[in-house]
Amino acid sequence: MPVTFSSGEIAAANERCSRGISVGIKGVSIAFGGRTVLENFDVEISAGEFVAIVGRSGCGKSTLLRSVVGLETPQAGTIVVGNGAERNGKPDVRVMFQDSRLLPWRRILPNVMLGLEAALIPRAQKVLAQVGLAERSNDWPATLSGGQRQRVALARALVHDPNLLLLDEPLGSLDALTRIEMQQLIEDVWRSRGFTAMLVTHDVAEAISLADRVILIEGGRVALDEVVNIPRPRTRGSVRFAALEERILGRVLQRRPMVEAQW
Amino acid sequence: MNQGQTTFTKKPNHRPSMLAKQALPWVVPILLLIGWQWASSAGILPSRFLPSPRAVVSSFIELSLSGELWMHVRVSTLRALSGFVVGGGVGLLLGLLTASMHWAEILLDTTIQMVRNIPPLALIPLVILWFGIDESAKLFLVALGVFFPVYINTFHGIRSVDRGLLEMGRTYGLSGWPLYREIILPGALPSILVGVRFSLGLMWVILIVAETISARSGIGYMTMNAREFMQTDVMVVGILLYAILGKLADLLAKALERYWLRWNPAYQTAR
What we know:
heterodimer; A: 263 residues; alpha/beta; Rossmann fold; three-stranded antiparallel β-sheet; B: 271 residues; mainly alpha; MetI-like fold
């Protein structure tokens, strides 16, 4: 689905480019019922950066994301969101979950408007148009496909013009084609708006195609912190892409690089 | 390749048409009615046991023309509805309270579950002693009976609201009343409406018994009064009225469900 921006929108986007905020995670430990999920975990994310967090299921990547937004409370450590110098005090942090979590009893537009005053309806409509669902604004969520619901969830997060967008495997349940479409959409809005993004995913290719930096969590710690130096827009077929994917996957699966194994 | 071609010729339509579909449910009642009328006319069914349908209809017309019928219907409906409003309202509020506040559940739920096991109608002797055969006696009985289904289903509805939606609401800064209005109440509504529908049925049952035992007006009184004079036709009119009013209450509840739960694919009218 092509996403187009008018020149006015691009100008507005450039103005907003400073929206992103930094996230500082220092010495965070989280345990559930005696089982340590994160241990003395440190990560620094700079403003406007797109960071992908990968790892096997149960490695604590979702827990990390949830603790940034306050849905989990770490037993130790500090999480600082923003540097306290934001224009209107509290930074705006939004989450996109794996399931869309739309309110089934609200039509699409009111879902996007959740927590907003009625005066902001035009803005909500504009964002809905941006995700390509302007004509569905009066429908019930139950009538939308999974991919469309995730686009509504994205619109709901974007309406707030967040400083930090947390994506908790938001594309995990979508089919391959819809995933690629959604990845493009997310990259486009991230580039135009300049918020900080943290994406949790178990799809290494998705992480590489979207993120500036890929962090691998293993045993509750950072096992790999890799800067993705591939110019955007990234093509999955490219050699550098494939090499990086192979390296990260190899690390996840604890095997030696293919190159050595073959010779 | 022509031989392998599949042809889709339309077979003669065996599906019942819309009219037949709507008429079908009425076939059995109408046959019963005809049989009943025939048995009465033939003298197989003496009128002191069961009047003929024709006698029932003429008695219905007579009673409604004199206005007596409407007076009783109005009194009964008013009793039923006010009992429903009081009992359902208290059940809803207490259900919301105990499901939302942990201390309220600990304090009240055991008591409510104990009282629930007492059939409201078992209280009739006590209630007559307390309230006489006054309006308040009927109101109390109906309210008490209606309270429990609404209470239990409200409690259950609130407790089973999708955790994921609650979490999402909190990340969007909703708390207190906005969280209630946007997520908790709509999420509990399907279950609450089940309780309401159940209560509406129970409401008539309790009122019928209460009016039959102790009343000076209302459909139950009219029916019991007719018994004293062996007016079987009036008795049948009263019984049929309860059936109609019960059905009306159910239709009302269904309409509410269809309106309030129109977002739910299960309640969207099939086409």
